[in-house]
Design brief:
Helix content: 25-40%
Number of helices: 22
Number of strands: 27
Distance between the termini: 68 Å
Structural class: alpha+beta
Largest sheet: 7 strands, mixed
Amino acid sequence: MIPRLMQSVSLPSLRIEASRRQFLIGALAAGTGIAVGFRLLAAAPAAASENATGSHAFSPYVTIDGDGKVTVLSSQFEMGQGSYNGIATLVAEELDADWSAIEVKGAAGNVQAYGNIAFGGAIQGTGGSTSMSTSWERYRKAGAAARAMLVVAAAEEWGVDAAEITVENGRLAHPSGKSGGFGDFAARAATMPVPGDVTLKQPGEWKLIGNDKLKRFDSARKTNGTEQYTIDVKLPGMLTAVMIHPPLFGAKVKSFDASAAKALKGVVDVVETPRGIAIIGEHMWAAVKGRDAVTVEWDETVAEKRGTDEQMAMYRDLAKKPPAAMARKDGDTEAAFAGATKVLEASFDFPYLAHAAMEPLNAVARMNEDGTLEIWGGHQFPDIYQKLAGEIAGITPDKVRLHVMKSGGSFGRRAVSDGDIVVESVYAAKAIGFRAPVKVQWTREDDMRAGRYRPAYVHSLKAALDESGKLVAWDDHIVGQSIVARTALQGMIQNGVDPTSVEGASNLPYAIPNQTVGLTTTDFGVPVLWWRSVGSTHTAFAAETFLDEIAEAAGRDPVEFRLSMLEPDSRHATVLKLAAEKAGWDKPLPEGRFRGVAIAESFGSVVAEIAEVSADGNGGIKVERVVAAVDCGLAVNPDQVRAQVEGGIGFGLGAILGEEITLTDGQVDQGNFDLYTPLRIDAMPRVEVHIVPSANPPSGIGEPGVPPIGPAVANAAYKALGKRIRVLPFARSINA
């Protein structure tokens, strides 16, 4: 192999949705104080020869130990979606590393190196299914640069021409017989300047990228229980705190009596924080028992006291009125409706949804004698948390060190602009004078009732067909809360439109000459947040189920009807045809089986899904099989792509079949998995995932599998039960 040295590469074009591109604008408009600026590896500072742990740093992205172990410092947070594995693949491919010697750690505190390119580069963050797109070039360049530095170091030590050295599987070799592992040259190589321009491998040279048989580097420890999460953190002298949050959103502590709690063995202190009351104990059990003994009087003057029935009635009334803002306006819908042969209307209700990740929220804070503050947690937005923690502790952000832990799920829950659990840990530790490390650990009930849900929405849809059965007009009025209003990301809202509320609706791929998409943003006192696939969780369902109704009214096959409105060679048409082919759409089903189809684009990727269902004999349905086709650009780890689509289908199924957060007089009704019901294992269907080959840079895959599953199942359920699903979860429509 010829070493790839000092040749230029060009940046790939990144296909990122407009809402994500506006992320930077929102953050800066709110004055978060996060420094602007981003530079690729070429502009990164020269590597130090050795860091404090004995590893040799080649760049902000790669270190190599003396034993040859390669550690990748990831800008992206790992929450089970496999970003660490994907980034490790990029580095190891260009480095020609030994896959068994790869490790990945979360990195933070250097926005110039770790800023998310898809977010404009001025902030580090994981979200929007951008991990591979933001990493695609810079981590390959990091691997190639480290390889080049090792080759030069070996050439100098051996006194040979660098061009004669080959690298494979973590070892360097020369035709003279000289050879050595990465560790043999790491110290010398790390003292050299990082090359600004390197040549990257061509696809025909790849051994790891696109390899369907490559096993995840971290799968063993995840299955044997040795993987470490924040819940596993144990520090000398560490105390554990649990929180009492207001029972109503917007309520404040008026007074509290902690005397009985403080009298309990193991309870260290009970303190008030701006986010509620923290009960600090020697261990979790003591803290929980202490919490039970605290009595609190709440000031509910500005609290939200309305319930779900009242909320949804208000939303339905608003949906009948003209929208407050317009997200899309093509052609003349009024004229098209006036001249239509047939007009159809439908309304859809969507509830609040919890993230319900397996690991409830947690964080650990410790102040050190040197004045630095360390925080362990699932830091999805590390720059923001670093700044907020510093403000609370009274220190500058550079004195806040974040330990980016792997997280047992997030689905967006740990990506909050106010710091949430992170600031709770700092407040609790500060309240006791930082005399001990404090872990704040939420229970499942805390996680379910303390807010941050996928917003509730109502869609009011209207469509028109002409005399030939062509869809000529489409109107969608969306009513619901804004995720970013009154947050640090307020600047994302343009002309009254929060793009996360309308994504998937304002960019429908179908050729409909007259389209309007309106938005009425509501003011309801329940905290909301992005939830896996964000706006497309409701927009895809409303659009794709309504399209089936329209196809039926036009006397058309649902797949053929969609294809008639798509460019024949488009990504949408390609995945739809592939899914239909693999599912045997044109072939008869066994008696008692029914199919439904849906397609959705989100986060730069397009997914079509065909669901096969049966009636369960009790008025409901059972999902038997799902066939998915996905175009996510180049699949770095094909098996991981399939796993993410499979997981997204299971995640989305749970939401549409039975999940909902409801309120009674402002209080959340659900507290655990007895009433909030993610998909059970026996309800998971057989899933087949087919990946469209692509040479385009990778686009999102963590979320795009979620949006199509709901409408695909709903469309199949209509054929099985003769009933349209217009109120979610399914149980509400089926039992209505």
